[in-house]
Amino acid sequence: MRVSVHFYSYFKELTGCAETAETLPEGSTINDLLKLLIARFPKLGAMQNSTLIAVGVEYQGRSYVLKEGEEVSLFPPVQGG
After folding, report:
1. With 80 as the cut, is the pLDDT of residue 81 above it?
2. Do 64 and 30 touch, CB atoms closer than 8 A?
3. DSSP three-state, residue 69
4. Domain around 38
5. Using CA atoms, how far apart are residues 30 and 21, in angstroms rounded to an integer?
6. Contact 33, 58 (CB under 8 A)
7. 65 strand-pairing partners
């Protein structure tokens, strides 16, 4: 399945992009997605314990099971105004 991932605030600088699309096996969780993203963008690793994650417009926990076509957003813990 494919999901789109959007990076906000300084996560854009850490990854070098504002968004990406990832392919995961059916039944994958947000935690599985994070492992994949950290392998692709190692600088995210330092932020993995404090990253806020939303699917659509709802914040979700790491055990949330992703569905085909969902939009995942990653936010740093503190953002400027």
Report:
1. no
2. yes
3. coil
4. 2-75
5. 14
6. no
7. 29
